[in-house]
Amino acid sequence: MLHSIFKTSRILPVLFVPLIALSLGAAPWDDDDDDEDEIELEEAEVFIEFNFTDGDIGIQFFWDGEAWKKMSIKGPHGRTVLRVKSSGYLADQGLAEGFFESNEPSLDELSMEVFFERFPAGEYEFEGRTVDGDEIEGETEFTHVLPAPPSNLWPADGDDVDHWAPLVVTFDAVTQDLDGQPLTPVLYEVIVETEGDILRVLSLILDGGVAHPAVTIPPEFLTPETEYKLEIIVQEESGNKTIAETEFSTL
Question: What is the pTM for the complete model shown?
Answer without folding.
Answer: 0.85
